[in-house]
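This section describes the prediction task in plain terms. A model, or a person checking by hand, is given the sequence of a single protein chain and must write out its three-dimensional structure as a string of tokens. No templates, partner chains or ligands are provided. The sample shown here is typical of the held-out split.
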Amino acid sequence: MLFKSLWRWLLAVGNRVVIERVERERLKDGELVVVVSVRLRRRRTGRGFCGRCERLSPGYDQGVGRRRWRDLDQGTTRTFLEADAPRVACKVHGVTVAAVPWARHHVGVTRRFEDQVAWLAVHASQKAITELMRIAWRTVGAVVQRVSDDARARLDPLEGLVRIGIDEISYRKGHRYLTVVVDHDTGRLVWAAPGRNKATVNDFFNELGPSRTLKIRLVSADAAHWIGDVVRSRCLNAKLTMDSFHVIKWATDALDVVRRQVWNDARNAGQRSHAKELKGARYALWRNPEDLTERQAAKLADIARTNGPLYRAYLLKEQLRQVFQLGGQAGIELLDRWLAWAQRSRIEAFVKLGRSIRRHRDAIDQTLLTGTTNALVESTNTKLRVIHRRAYGFRTPQAMIALGMLALGGLCPNLPGRPELPQAA
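The expected answer:
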């Protein structure tokens, strides 16, 4: 293989690129690097492609000199591509630097360098990336955002959505939230943006567009009105389901209100030993019966003998859990009986819970009929929290969102030189 052909193959620049020469150069800090001078094969028409929109445009001038792009290291030696940077006159963007096949516009590194950094950002630690690639962590954030934006321009994550889940996640102190949207059919994160309000959810549907919004058939969410109100007004063909986890959590919170009330009554009546037992019974009341330890089961049996109201509250919590385990029409019928029991119980916390469930009854019934929960969205949120810790130091939430889209949205590029693998659904 000829020397220049070998370098063209090593740099993966294709036949449009001519290798002019390869030289060693010592930088100011004494490091020896490889500089490969290249040029594009000349077009007879004197035209080029706009670096921003890649439209074929007439040439303008030869630019202001030669530019360099950092490429992947050759062994342990840093390697740079050097070429002229002519300009073209784009009808849309005016005079701008012509596109080159090895790098994105206005970026000082090659595409394959950025793809490797993005892959490492998904799979490796901050320290490993910065030391291996010899770049700053802030640079990693900018690279991740560019690669994610480029992937989203080629593969629209919002295409083909039918069943989605919407939720929020806190990403910083001071009530800083992201709204996230997950596709139930593929399990992928398809959209995220800063904010936790109706305007943020409307931004998602605006980006989705009217025709694709009408194709949505199911939306899962919690009881947040800022999600439900927008879904009802925008997704006219969709059924709204409410996550069962939040309903059961309401029941657990109501049970804890009853426990604290009973504990306070016992303490005020001077029944210190009984109050101490009630304080230690929290986990016995919270846990599912099949998960109780022997000690917790004994404590629960003691509550059944000595404290009727608290034990009834526990049974109400457990029967509501059974509603969602049963599901379907049978679950709806059991929920009807549960609401009647909660009303008759005269336990104020569960009377209030019954009113809350009635307000959200349509969404809860759809959850029982479809069996769809927000568990997938909650799982995605857990993974996003891990990504957030890894992305510590990124200046903007957009960089963290971009990393989330690469890791959880199916947009992560392959390592340079690896065969294209099919994306997992």
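For orientation: The radius of gyration is 30 Å.
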